[in-house]
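Q: Okay, next protein. This is Cytochrome c family protein from Methanosarcina lacustris Z-7289. I've checked the sequence twice, so it should be correct. Can you predict the 3D structure?
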Amino acid sequence: MKSTELLITIFLFAGIWASHAAAEPSGPGNFTSDQFSKSGICSNCHGSSFGEWSGSMHSNADSDFFYQAMLQEYGRAAEAQGLPPEFCSRCHTPIGMVSAEIPPLDGSHLSEVSKEGVQCDFCHSVAESEGIGNAPYVLEPGDVKWGNRADAVSPSHGIEAHEFYNESGYCGMCHNINHPVNNLTLAATYTEWEESPYAEEGVTCQACHMTPGIVGFEENPGKAASTGPKREHVYTHYFVGANAFVTDVMGEGRHEKRAIEYLQHAAELKVTAPDSAEPGDNVEVEVGVTNTGAGHKIPTGVTEDREMWLELTVEDSEGRELYHSGALDSEGKIDSGATVYHTIFADSEGKPTAKAWEAESILSDNRISPKESVVEKYSFIMPENASNPISTKAVLHYRSAAQEHIDELFGKGAYNVPVIDMAAYPEEKKSSTPGFGIIGAGIALFLGSTLRRLKR
């Protein structure tokens, strides 16, 4: 081989190797935290987006007290069982993780920018992803910021456009979680969406969680930057989910309110029950629960902690209680006979565990998929002294964690986990926030046309 050909071959091989190396997920020690800008700097031009993000669960991803309590438990288990200590931090403080400021997990080595959780410069330094789940992001921090607009111009930094920023796969990097050792699925919000009718219709995560509407695309005209042009649509940065517990405790009222609105527009109930019965009759009641508004299962996320349950109350004409299921006792526990929608993991001995790192298998998962319904059946014997007509009320409740678990972590009385009424039958008046429940082919077409206009 001639020397010129050899040099070309070496250069080509080096280029291929460098390209492959660049595509590897960013890991601990790849960067230093001073390569990333604090979000306050971004607010100089992106004030609206910064204001929406500030106080969100993304901004509090590392400072969330509930997460921190669980993280310290995980840290002790990781040390004892040889689990990767940075596993949770890869999503909750990504800059701290890639800057090798984690471990230790107590945050004592975290820089100020790393404490900002899922923040502006991290998100807009993601150049690509190596897949779904467990945060396989590839970062390129620096003067160039990544986004979804090919025509954007900034006086402060360069801009690279990537269609990836319009895709649900971007969210799927962190919103699918597999066990770091046995690969058991611990959370699968992205996969739940991917297998849903919404994915088929082209309704993305961003269409629901980055627009003003409540789980439904709603156009948001305005400016993405103070120096930029007026646009037909600008994505919002609230990133609202269902967490009205942490947002409440941390004083983030705007985000708490929006979380409650999302919850109250996610499901509908339908009750089939007789309005009268004779003493001694077996009275049968059916409650249908439909996931009408979430593009993933309800509940979703870390569903070993989440609780969604039905409360059914039947009374006679005098207000005497004939049947009751789903009540809370004085300590906040749901009665044992209630229908609770969640995931139950089992440890290596097959025993239920709420500690995801101990999970070896799934004992049960009765959550409700997008646009699907389940029917729960109840029955009781009509008492002798009951009077007709019979009235039946069903309520679908939600809370971010079991009160018992919070009491174990922080002590009794430290925090009361709010119970949110998601839906009721007979139906109660809901929030008047527009945009929810109009999801369908029409919105998919509208969203698609809007995105095409944004690209032009």
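A: Here is a summary of the prediction. The longest strand covers residues 282-291. The mean pLDDT is 90.
Q: Noted. On to the next one.
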